[in-house]
Amino acid sequence: MTRYRDFHRRSIDNPEAFWREEARRIHWHTPFGTVLDRSKPPFARWFVGGRTNLCHNAVDRHLAERAQQNALVYVSTETGIERHYTYAELYGEINRMAAVMRSLGVKRGDVVLIYLPMIPEALFAMLACARLGAIHSVVFGGFAAPNLAARIDDAKPALIVTADAGARAGKVVDYTPLVDEALSRAKHKTPHVLLIDRQLAPARLTAPYLVAYEPLREQFFDVHIPCEWLESNEPSYVLYTSGTTGKPKGVQRDVGGYAVALAASMEYIFEGKPGDTMFTASDVGWVVGHSYIVYAPLIAGLTTVMYEGTPIRPDGGIWWRLVEQHKINLMFTAPTALRVLKKQDPALMKAADLSSLRTLFLAGEPLDQPTAEWITNALNKPVIDNYWQTETGWPMLAIPRGIEALPTKLGSPGVPSVGYSLTVRDELTGEPCAAGEKGVLTLDYPLPPGCMSTVWGDDKRFVSTYWSSVPNQQVYSTFDWGVQDEDGYVTILGRTDDVINVAGHRLGTREIEEALSSHAAVAEVAVVGVTDPVKGQVAMAFVVLRGAQADGDPSERARLATELATTVDRHLGSIARPARVVMVSMLPKTRSGKLLRRAIAALAEGREPGDLPTIEDPAALQQVREALGDGAKK
Ligand code: PRX
């Protein structure tokens, strides 16, 4: 372990020297002066004064050596479309998109909201923003109109880029009515909406400000737009994520630090070399998509595979066939996808030639042991669990095989990555825990390059949310429980807050509660995460109905339960839909009125909640128990 230990120690003891070296991985139009500005903790500014551009580093820089290499391979099993773009072709498409955006008034510092399915234009639009110095905010295509409206009001975009429709599991999902509803709900008036017409559904946007992309693209076919050279700490993007409150936080990322950190991660963790092919099965709407479908593989000169579809259509062998056909070297997905694939006919996997594949990476949720064992044996290749968050942008924990091929330990994503000074701390005292003791996973100041710079438009929230929750210490809280062993390996033991993880998607239970509370029949509601064999966790809602409805007959209550679940679909999107809505006449609370969510979750998982000395009315627990039982009998 000595090589890893030396590396890691150097990155913590002297971050300036360590990251000065790493910064050579990218192109700087103007060299930086100070490596790290620590004048305003907990804020950290990396590579101060340096000027660079993410699009230049991802695309232009490679044209000299790899213009004819594929940069992007796009496969949609929803539409049957497959397209390949060399670096030269990608350069052309990004310039066209940037020219179109510019013709609509987009300039450096403006926000462009991207609400697109998994189509190449999503990647073009992100990189076109980077080229123009505009800030992209990609909103996951599965989010519903009110969710989108909240992000429009927070990000105040100068332009929204959308499509006529997305497609999932053979079903077309119209986007334009959602955008239309979001625009009418939002207070902010977005001047233009750019429409990518896939011809899957008629565009039904009533807004007069709709602009079709294709005719403009033709008009700007041969235009070259120069890269804006941004100061390293200018924002590159905002990506919203859920937390304890109902209001999502805009995670703001910089330019230079992000490029350097991703480039370093490609060597130290992913071992991706120029010319390799990487398939990250995620969505551009999530942080894994931002970092490992779009930016990191391109910055490092790889070919990135972008996939629209599910892992089991047309059959459970599709991903393995993609590996064979495109000679994929690195694959990255979430454990949920593997739990789905595990149920498929093993012959489908055996039929494919997987010899090109070197490593499989998994992140986003805990990797359970049976799944880890199954896939390791089935593939007979390294399976690397890695742990991180939207906030950090790249792995905090992994096996840094590019530094040293440390052994994996089942149940642990590995050891802290370079630059991360990670400590497990006692929740009550803030003191470091001994090896083997459970505590909160925290990071010391400064966060390494690539991590969030602040909460968009709200520096105070950055400090009060992330840097103020551990007693007596100004450290960054991950809001995850963990335990570290004597060798430094960390095991993640779930969230400390009200965030749940459904099929690798991060959801705030408060957001789901707020959606349910908007229904007239709901008096009170508690949403908890409950263990699920495939999705890791699912949301379960416990609802107290208002007066008359509370006495309704069982069939009326069942109808209402479905209606409530649909309300969540409409507000947030179907990924947030509770797996079960359970009616109760009261919710267990403490004497000071705080909901006892952990007790409710324990009962829902068939466990006893243990000691609850401050419960207001123990009958409420009994109610929950009985209501759960009723459901089981149905
Ligand atoms: O609770 C941790 C869990 O997912 C959260 C972050 O989710 P998100 O912001 O969507 O970013 C995902 C980036 C991969 C974390 O706070 N989590 C993420 N990776 C793991 C994990 N839990 C256990 N093991 C992991 N490898």
List keywords for this structure.
32 strands; binds adenosine-5'-monophosphate-propyl ester; Rossmann fold; single chain; alpha/beta; 7-stranded mixed sheet; 2 domains; GMP Synthetase, Chain A, domain 3
Helix content: 25-40%
The biggest beta sheet reads: 7 strands, mixed
Under CATH, the homologous superfamily of the largest domain reads ANL, N-terminal domain
Tally of DSSP helical segments: 21
Low-confidence stretches: none
What is the strand tally?
Answer: 32
Ligand catalogue? adenosine-5'-monophosphate-propyl ester
- CATH 2nd-level architecture of the largest domain: 3-Layer(aba) Sandwich
SS class: alpha/beta
* Cα distance spanning the termini: 55 Å
Beta-strand content estimate: 15-25%
**CATH structural class of the largest domain:** Alpha Beta
User: For the largest beta sheet, what order do the strands appear in spatially?
Assistant: 5-4-17-16-18-19-20
Task: Determine Rg (CA atoms, Å).
Answer: 24 Å
Mean pLDDT: 94
CATH topology of the largest domain: Rossmann fold
Transmembrane segments: 111-134
GO molecular function, one term: ATP binding
InterPro entries: ACAS_N, AMP-bd_C, AMP-bd_C_sf, AMP-binding_CS, AMP-dep_synth/lig_dom, ANL_N_sf, Propion_PrpE
Protein name: Propionate--CoA ligase
